[in-house]
Structure formats: structure tokens, C-alpha cells
Amino acid sequence: MSGGLLVAGTTSDAGKSVVTAGICRWLTRKGVSVAPFKAQNMSLNSFVTHEGAEIGRAQAMQAQAARVEPSALMNPVLLKPGSDRSSQVVLMGKPVGEMSARGYHGGRQAALLETVVGCLEELRGTYDAVICEGAGSPAEINLRRTDIVNMGIARAARFPVLVVGDIDRGGVFASFFGTTALLSAEDQELVAGYLVNKFRGDVSLLEPGLDMLHGLTGRRTYGVLPFQHGLGIDEEDGLRVSLRGAVRESVVAPPVGDDVLRVAVCAVPLMSNFTDVDALAAEPGVVVRFVDRAEELVDADLVVVPGTRGTVRALEWLRERGLAAALARRAAEGRPVLGICGGFQVLGEHIEDEVESRAGSVDGLGLLPVRVRFAREKTLARPVGEALGERVEGYEIHHGVADVVGGEPFLDGCRVGEVWGTHWHGSLESDAFRRRFLTEVARAAGRRFVPAPDTSFGALREEQLDLLGDLIEEHADTDALLALIEKGTPTGLPFIPPGAPAPTPAPSAAPERTKEAL
């Protein structure tokens, strides 16, 4: 088998990331060697590969779904927003500078397209299939001229395009038709059909609409995926936590001990890698919620200050909202606080920043004996160490260099009383360490909480990826998908002029349903 597919969407958050992961896991279980690919990703959730390259965390998750090692080839361009108007550009895993949206789209696309096509071709030469994820919508006609991630890469690779629509939002038929109709004739040639995501109810009630959509566009629907609770899978920037199904706040599994443990995560501006708390939410009896008011910290047993792409901005935000004073009170009372990456820097005594915010000399919260200087070179690493007597693995993504001048050592950061700080993302995914840390938190908080002795974050993640594969296998026309990946877009699909719907043929013109779900 040799081929590929581009999974596009009618909107952002239509489900492209999880559908791509599901197709990768389904193909992998069939014995197909497959790689994910996203030419250009805009996200503050990122990951560090073993070769020290920074890529979108969603692509790392998709690589895990495909059971392959993540690589910079799978996400050659990563944009990390620093404001509404500018982003850090990460090319082939390394930052190359800050750029405004106008500057980025103003002249670099030809060179970038050459780079991303080269990466895609290298993956195609290594794997049986490459499943690409688009970004936003392919019908963002204002950006089509400079597009390298949707129809631009599909045209370059001659890949068929499957358009995903979130029916839970409503308007999915209009979105499918409008997305197709806004594309040029050359782009429409590659749009093979549609995939409905997050459907609730009886699929038979949807079938007349699918038939009419086929009549209007000449394109079939390749599957109807049901709404699935509890998909705690890494996406680009969706505020979702817990592999056990938590969304903002929920406890699905009962506690092992007599108490639950309440974790409040400060929703700082430009929050990055908040997936760090997924491992906490995976524990039975741990409640994780995102907060933005000081009063929401009162009943928290642990407060997490997460990573951020704007450390100085986050510091100002914490002070403006009274959260800084609330954190200081907690520290004085011996109540647990954990700072991760930018959150660790915020807890220090002093910040010298001529790189990220260019704010110069700024006082931190003074809860940890740390002085931070921002370097132009970004630290990208996959450290392994020990804390609380347990082995810990993590990854580092930061410009801030911490000079720790006191306290107890903790994962290259430090601990003072019940205030902990580290640059290591992902450390809580180390099961034994997480259990020891939560035991410490429960003791300090006076809770009769007991970590479950057998919770495996890795096993839970694998269960979720298998569930995504099951959704594709059970609710999509996999024979047709396989043919699409191998042979490309069917020929002879009609062009749909914008504003001029084609006549609807008789229902008999609809494609045969090869699976009951369709």
C-alpha cells in the first residue's frame, strides 16, 4: 500500500486531530506503516522529540497512535502565538524568530511550501501511508494564495481531501456545501467527500440529509462518528482535561481513600502545555478545574501555575486578579503550590526579560529563591531524573534560564516548604512519581486522599487511542477510506459554482451504504 489523505475541517475544532489519530491507529492495527503530518500548526501545546525538535503536541499524540517515534518531519512549521498579532515561528523544530501575521503571509510561503513538501516526500518514502491534518478550514479564501497546510499541500501531493464537520455545533450540511463551493475548480477536484463528527441519536434520521448532500455536491459521506464522552486526547488548544472524561471539572472514578483532592489550575494568558495536568485528572478522586478568580483557590488542595508563552504578562494578570496575593497567602500557610515552566518562573524572585516581553527587569512573586534570565536560545530537552525517590521523565521548552539560589532541589528547580517549581513538562506522567507527589500534597492539605496504586497514564492513553481507532473502524466506511488512501480522489466529481446549487437527483443516486452506521 502506498498513498495518503488530507483530513480537513469545516472549522477549527471540528475534530481533525482526533480523526487523524483514529485513522492512524486503525491503519496501524491493520499492519500498515503510517505517519501523521501537519505542515503548519498554530498551538501553544508542544512537545520535544528525542532529537530535540519542538513540534505540536497533537502530532506527537498522532505519532503515538501510529506507534512511531515523533519527528520534526511530521510538523515542519509550528506557530506559537505571543499576542493577537504575532507568533514565534518554529521551523523544523527550532525557533527562527517572531513574526507578525502580515509578515508571515507576506512572502515566505514559497520557501516554506518547498520545505513542507520535502518533509512530506521523505515521510512518503519511509511509510506506506501518510495521513495529513489540515488547519482551520480549507475555505479560508483570504489565505488561499499563501496556504501551505490545506489545499496547498493537497495540490502539491495530489492527496484526496476528506472534510470533517462537527454536527454537534449545528449547520453541518451548510458547512460541507459551503466549504466545497468556495474552493476553486482545481481544489474541488481533490475533495473526495465528508465525515460527520460528534453525532448524537439515530443515524437513520440523518440519512436523507446525507443523500441530499450527495445530490448537491456529487460527493459521498464516508462515515458518521458518534459523540464520544471522555476523549482526553491532546489537541491543539482545546481546554479539556482528563483521560477519564473530565471537562473543566468532573470526577468520574471514585477516590480510593476517604477524600477527593481538588486541584485548581490558574488559566494564565497564553497558557501553554496545560496538558501537564491531564495526568492528575486521570487519577481516581482528583478534581481538576481551571480558575481565573482568587476566591476559586480557597478550597483547592493544590494550585498549579502552568506554562505560558508570556511569563511577564501572566505575572501582571495574576496580580491584577488578586491571584498573586492568594498564592502568597497559600505559601505562608504551608498549602501546596506547583509552578511548571513559565509558572515556575513567575514564582521566583526576579525576572530579566529582553527576549519574550522585552520588559526588562521585573519582580516575581518571591515564593521561590530563583532568579530568571531570558536567553535568545531556546532550551529544548528531554531530561530524565529523580524526585521523591522515584524516576521521572519530562521535556523542557523555555527561553528562561533559572538560577536557583536556595531551597531543596526538585527536577532542576526547587522546593521551599509546600511551594514547588520546575521547568519540566510531562513529569506527572511518570506514575510512581505522581503518586508520591500527590501523597505529599494530601498530607500538606490534611486530606485523607490515597492515590490509586495501579493507575497507568500510558495505559489510559493507549486505551483512548484504541477507542479512536474503534470509532473509525466501526462507524466509517473503511473499505472506501482504504481505496481513497491508495487510489486518490475519484475522477469525475462535479464543480460546484458558489451560489449555484445543482439540482437534487432522486434518492437512488445516493451511494450504497456499506456499513450499518451509514
UniProtKB/TrEMBL annotation:
Domain (CobB/CobQ-like glutamine amidotransferase) ranges: 262-432
A Pfam match: GATase_3
Residue ranges occupied by any CobQ/CobB/MinD/ParA nucleotide binding domain in the UniProt entry: 6-237
Keywords for the protein's UniProt record, in alphabetical order: Cobalamin biosynthesis, Glutamine amidotransferase, Ligase
GO MF annotation list: ABC-type vitamin B12 transporter activity; ligase activity
Top-level taxon in the UniProt lineage: Bacteria
Region (Disordered): 493-518
Biased composition (Pro residues): 495-508
PROSITE patterns listed in its UniProt record: GATASE_COBBQ, GATASE_TYPE_1
InterPro entries, sorted: Class_I_gatase-like (IPR029062), CobQ/CobB/MinD/ParA_Nub-bd_dom (IPR002586), CobQ_GATase1 (IPR033949), CobQ_N (IPR047045), CobQ_synth (IPR004459), GATase_3 (IPR011698), P-loop_NTPase (IPR027417)
Active site: C341 (nucleophile), H425
Pathway membership, UniProt: Cofactor biosynthesis; adenosylcobalamin biosynthesis
Function: Catalyzes amidations at positions B, D, E, and G on adenosylcobyrinic A,C-diamide. NH(2) groups are provided by glutamine, and one molecule of ATP is hydrogenolyzed for each amidation.
Family stated for the protein in its record: Belongs to the CobB/CobQ family. CobQ subfamily.
Name of the protein this chain belongs to: Cobyric acid synthase
